[in-house]
Backbone:
């Protein structure tokens, strides 16, 4: 019997006890919502019997999930002899991640194991931590791709187009993630964009001011104002924007959206990327605050509904 077969046999009774207490291969909501594995459906919309190949994929995803959260969640044995996840000792958690970091990561795990919470959390983190910066940077890159050649800088125009393509692919990679991986990837993207903004804002902010000033002469390259603008942008765009996006952003984001390292290496990479744990917290705090308010509202709404029915 192969090693994977032996593992499979040993895991057939695995319980996702902290979620709903069902055997892993029978908990379709957990498989799709948390692990992000698509299940084949018949014409009636019911899940068809799982193949051994698909079971192996589900098991591999479960092992990856547990390996990532190891260090935040300890696997213990219940009185019934079943495997269950519990947060590690709070003192150890605070020592490892800091008080605020420990609180945030516990909430991350709670979201990442509950399909009902994921959608609203991801929506909030994109609204508060991703889109405001992503849209500004994409707007600038799109304009540079369109205008640099007409401003007599085709080489820089080509470079901007390539960087825009890389930037858009990064965003799409995160959007395409599923289950708990999308929670981590979205949080990582928010942190990475905060890091990026700190690096490029000294170009983006004056660039936007320039675009406002030259809007009436943008198609008149011979104007004095356009000549001044072109002198500025030619010296600034490569070093203050394109090089950072091309040479540094990808490396930072790869670490922050990856789930192969584990929660401690992921947290350490985030802290290293932006400089301090406080900046990581600052990147995530708006989303966490909005999410908590959303949860409080939902809980209050449910209580009112129960009281009036």
Residues:
């Amino acid at each position: 019997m192969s090693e994977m077969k032996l593992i499979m046999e040993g895991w057939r009774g695995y319980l996702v006890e902290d979620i709903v207490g069902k055997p892993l291969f029978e908990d379709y909501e957990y498989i799709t919502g948390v692990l992000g594995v698509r299940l084949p459906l018949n014409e009636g919309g019911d899940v068809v019997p799982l193949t051994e190949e698909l079971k192996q994929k589900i098991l591999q995803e479960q092992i990856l999930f547990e390996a990532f959260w190891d260090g935040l969640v300890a696997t213990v044995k219940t009185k019934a002899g079943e495997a269950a996840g519990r947060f590690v000792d709070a003192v150890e958690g605070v020592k490892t991640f800091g008080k605020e970091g420990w609180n945030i990561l516990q909430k991350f795990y709670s979201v990442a194991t509950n399909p009902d919470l994921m959608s609203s959390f991801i929506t909030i983190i994109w609204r508060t931590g991703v889109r405001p910066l992503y849209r500004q940077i994409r707007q600038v890159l799109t304009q540079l791709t369109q205008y640099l050649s007409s401003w007599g800088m085709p080489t820089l125009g080509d470079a901007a187009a390539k960087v825009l393509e890389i930037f858009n692919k990064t965003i799409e990679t995160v959007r395409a993630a599923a289950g708990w991986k999308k929670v981590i990837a979205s949080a990582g993207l928010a942190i990475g964009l905060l890091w990026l903004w700190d690096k490029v804002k000294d170009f983006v902010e004056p660039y936007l001011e320039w675009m406002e000033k030259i809007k009436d002469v943008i198609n008149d390259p011979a104007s004095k104002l356009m000549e001044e603008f072109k002198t500025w942008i030619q010296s600034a765009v490569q070093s203050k924007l394109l090089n950072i996006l091309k040479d540094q952003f990808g490396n930072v984001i790869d670490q922050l959206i990856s789930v192969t390292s584990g929660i401690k290496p992921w947290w350490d990479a985030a802290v290293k990327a932006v400089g301090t744990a406080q900046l990581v917290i600052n990147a995530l705090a708006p989303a966490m605050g909005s999410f908590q308010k959303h949860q409080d509202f939902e809980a209050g709404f449910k209580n009112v509904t129960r009281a009036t029915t």
